[in-house]
């Protein structure tokens, strides 16, 4: 991403997100919003600057150690830049004194910057100190209902990665310093991944090696298959928290007998910027960036001929094609780029287009000047090249999915 000009380094583990990356991230957030709101999620925004008093009440001020970015205000009060918001959201819900069982389950989520003092930030956006995350927190009337919510969020995550065209594995995981009694990671299999996974060859069982004994080779679920070791990039994590936080902050609701009852909780994270980087890692080749189709910053790049070349007269046609696609196909409005650097050869601009990962590149050359105009269309994600008429081009791009 850095070589392609998508991000630029700032401090260790921190990056400028350049315009194409911001476009891609905004698209990812729209897909996340669709999936979270489909299961009843409500979006909010919580402060990144959180009081140490909240974290001391859960004992995580000490437990998190050097991972927390800590600071003091002018009055010497302690704060942290939050890596996660369990304390904050539970306090918010606890202050809703009229909360009724009729209003549950309550699923609150945000997409915001998070901060973690990584000892060795590396691999670009895969492990940074400042990053974007979607974090959701659920409040339910009972343990049974909370498990149902947990399953619905896991299913939403599975749908999300399916829509992005990414193979994602849900694995049994450790609860770590978040806590709770049940946890799953969502991993994209990749050789560069930092997590070691054990996957059964016979059934659906998979787990992070942290959760199993070091010498375990037989599947604990089916007792038949052998566990195969692989690597993955963690892009999501879910936790069933029970009453760990709601008890501490008295996050209660009125039950059917109108008596105060402590809510059952879950929390669910998605690494927004990490998903972008991980998707590029698993989909791209050495020479070309390949985005998930929904997340490409732009869907189409039109290349006019070089100025002064034999096909120079086709420049006007290229401009018409770019305008026409945005005007004729509503879903491509704002999704078409005209590379007007006509002082450069088409070959050079085509190389740049592949480096940036436009799903479709349309080369407007000599063929566009023929009696039956033809356009060279390169499909980045398949490597296929086609020569299409204008109608054929419209038919092809009419099927492009956008958000």
TrEMBL record:
One of its GO terms (molecular function) is proline-tRNA ligase activity. Its main location: mitochondrion. GO terms for biological process: prolyl-tRNA aminoacylation. Keywords: Aminoacyl-tRNA synthetase, ATP-binding, Ligase, Mitochondrion, Nucleotide-binding, Protein biosynthesis, Transit peptide. It is an enzyme of class 6 (ligase). Residues 1-292 form the Aminoacyl-transfer RNA synthetases class-II family profile domain. GO terms for cellular component: mitochondrial matrix. InterPro entries: aa-tRNA-synt_IIb, aa-tRNA-synth_II, aa-tRNA-synth_II/BPL/LPL, Anticodon-bd, Anticodon-bd_dom_sf, Pro-tRNA-ligase_IIa, Pro-tRNA_synthetase, ProRS_core_prok. It holds the Pfam family HGTP_anticodon. It catalyses: tRNA(Pro) + L-proline + ATP = L-prolyl-tRNA(Pro) + AMP + diphosphate. Its EC number is 6.1.1.15. It is found in: Mitochondrion matrix. Belongs to the class-II aminoacyl-tRNA synthetase family. Mitochondrial aminoacyl-tRNA synthetase that catalyzes the specific attachment of the proline amino acid (aa) to the homologous transfer RNA (tRNA), further participating in protein synthesis. The reaction occurs in a two steps: proline is first activated by ATP to form Pro-AMP and then transferred to the acceptor end of tRNA(Pro). This is Probable proline--tRNA ligase, mitochondrial. It comes from Knipowitschia caucasica (Caucasian dwarf goby).
């Amino acid at each position: 991403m850095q070589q392609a000009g998508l991000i630029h380094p700032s401090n260790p583990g921190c990056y400028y997100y350049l315009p194409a990356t911001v476009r891609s991230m905004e698209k990812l957030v729209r897909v996340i919003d669709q999936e979270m709101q489909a299961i009843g999620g409500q979006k909010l925004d919580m402060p990144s600057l959180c009081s140490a008093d909240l974290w001391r009440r859960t004992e995580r001020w000490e437990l998190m150690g050097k991972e927390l970015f800590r600071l003091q205000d002018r009055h010497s009060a302690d704060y942290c830049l939050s890596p996660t918001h369990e304390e904050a959201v539970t306090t918010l819900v606890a202050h809703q004194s009229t909360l009724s069982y009729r209003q549950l389950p309550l699923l609150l989520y945000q997409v915001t910057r998070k901060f973690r003092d990584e000892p060795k930030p590396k691999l670009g956006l895969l492990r940074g100190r400042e990053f974007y995350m979607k974090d959701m927190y659920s409040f339910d009337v009972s343990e049974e209902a909370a498990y149902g919510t947990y399953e619905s969020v896991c299913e939403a995550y599975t749908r999300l990665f399916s829509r992005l065209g990414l193979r994602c594995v849900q694995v049994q995981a450790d609860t770590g310093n978040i806590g709770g009694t049940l946890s799953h990671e969502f991993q994209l299999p990749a050789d560069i991944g930092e997590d070691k996974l054990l996957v059964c060859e016979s059934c659906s069982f998979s787990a992070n090696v942290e959760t199993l004994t070091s010498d375990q080779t037989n599947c604990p679920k089916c007792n038949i298959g052998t566990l195969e070791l692989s690597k993955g990039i963690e892009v999501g994590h879910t936790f069933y928290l029970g009453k760990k936080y709601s008890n501490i902050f008295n996050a209660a609701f009125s039950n059917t007998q109108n008596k105060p009852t402590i809510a059952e909780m879950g929390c669910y994270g998605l690494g927004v910027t990490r998903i972008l980087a991980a998707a590029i890692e698993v989909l791209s080749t050495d020479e070309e960036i390949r985005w998930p189709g929904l997340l490409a910053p732009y869907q189409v790049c039109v290349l006019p001929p070089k100025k002064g070349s034999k096909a120079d007269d086709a420049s006007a046609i290229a401009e018409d094609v770019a305008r026409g696609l945005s005007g004729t196909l509503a879903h491509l409005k704002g999704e078409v780029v005209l590379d007007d650097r006509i002082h450069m050869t088409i070959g050079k601009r085509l190389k740049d287009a592949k480096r940036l990962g436009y799903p479709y590149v349309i080369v407007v050359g000599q063929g566009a000047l023929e009696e039956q105009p033809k356009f060279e269309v390169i499909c980045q994600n398949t490597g296929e090249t086609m020569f299409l008429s204008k109608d054929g081009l419209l038919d092809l791009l009419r099927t492009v999915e956008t958000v």
